[in-house]
Amino acid sequence: MHAWLDDLNIPYKTNEPLAPLTWYKVGGAAQVLAEPSSVQQLTALASQCHTADVPTRVLGLGANLLVADQGVDGVVVRLSDPAFRQVRIEGTTVVAGGGFELAKLVLTTARAGLAGLECLAGIPASVGGAIRMNAGGVFGDIGQAVKRVMVADATGQVYYRDRDDLEFSYRRTNIVARYILSVQFDLSPDDPKALIRRVKEIFLYKKNTQPLREGSAGCAFKNPDQPDPQGRRLSAGQWIDKASLKNFAIGGARVSDRHANFIITDRGCTAGDVITLINHVQKTVADRFGVALEREVVEWP
Ligand SMILES: Cc1cc2nc3c(=O)[nH]c(=O)nc-3n(C[C@H](O)[C@H](O)[C@H](O)COP(=O)(O)OP(=O)(O)OC[C@H]3O[C@@H](n4cnc5c(N)ncnc54)[C@H](O)[C@@H]3O)c2cc1C
Q1: Distance of alpha carbon 229 from alpha carbon 217, whole angstroms
Q2: Counting atoms of ligand 1 from 1, which one is nearest the CA of 171?
Q3: Which of the listed residues 14, 48, 172, 257 has the most CB atoms within 10 Å of its CB?
Q4: Ligand 1: which of 132, 144, 175, 222 to mutate, most ligand atoms within 8 Å of CB?
């Protein structure tokens, strides 16, 4: 693999630890971490990996990712080059690269007096990762503002997906292409001061209800559809709390006492601790209430 990686002239590292690049701060290394400098380099890399049957994965900001302690084989691609971190505003249309930070995009668009993304304040993500997960919450999600997405599939073919054939639902999209390269948003004009106020309000709401400073991947589980015996729909965090699991720990992994759907990684934590705790939470909630919690966190491999 190294020979053709060298031929492609793409910056890459071997046996590169992924823990520092994720919010959990646990897990092993990538066999190869590649950071292409252009769409052409990325598509050449994708095509070569496809031909050589080398697995590829895309790393965003690592805010929803659990990397196993043994690490991952193949190539992890990171869109960290400025080529993938551009943002362009034309009227109410905003085009952002897949590697651009969502937090910066939220602020940039609010300051420009463009409404539609302020609901995403306080969500750590790259634009590509936010699209893949349809990031959002009680105030709205990213999908509602998307007009067009530029993607590349695992073979390196580049194409566009347009609004009318895109579907976004709770933490999912129908985009199956491996690489989300850039996203076009359709926003609406609004008062910049009011938008900035709204961004601050939403950020404060998140800060007051979620442990944003500790190692975590946000919500570990999706909110289940299943109602409680009174017919109310409880969130995953409420079911976990009902099972008295707040603060429950296995090794260095612990259920947050502020938000029971957050699993916190303390010093010395391993990915194995997180997986064992996730399994324990799922089993306890299923045994006690008959509720199946589905994982929201993406696990590698
Ligand atoms: C403190 C905290 C709070 C959070 N709060 C929220 C919240 O309120 N709402 C919410 O929805 N989420 C929340 N999350 C989870 C996380 O922010 C989102 O899931 C976010 O969308 C992850 O984006 P990322 O770039 O970090 O993706 P990563 O974690 O790096 O990757 C997640 C998935 O996206 C894929 N991916 C990443 N980039 C690309 C790309 N360019 N092309 C194709 N696929 C890609 C990866 O392969 C992987 O499958 C929170 C996380 C933390 C740590």
Answers
A1: 30
A2: 11
A3: 48
A4: 132
Whole-number average pLDDT of the chain: 97
We find that the CATH architecture of domain 236-300 is: Alpha-Beta Complex (3.90)
Tokens encoding 185? 């948003």
Domains 2-80 and 85-209 share a fold: no
Query: Does any ligand 1 atom lie closer than 6 A to the CB of residue 61?
Result: yes
- The atom of ligand 1 lying closest to the CA of 178 is 43
Q: Where are the domains of the chain?
A: 2-80, 85-209, 236-300
Provide, rounded to the nearest whole percent, the portion of the chain with pLDDT above 90: 97
Q: Is the pLDDT of residue 1 over 90?
A: no
pLDDT at 3 over 90: no
Helical ranges in the chain per DSSP H: 2-8, 39-51, 102-111, 127-133, 192-209, 236-242, 271-289
Beta strand 65-67 with 298-300 is parallel
pTM above threshold 0.90? yes
- Tell whether domain 85-209 is in CATH 3.30.465.10: yes
Domain 2-80 has CATH 3.30.830.10: no
Mean pLDDT, rounded, for 264-289? 97
* Residue found by looking up tokens 């050589």 in the block: 52
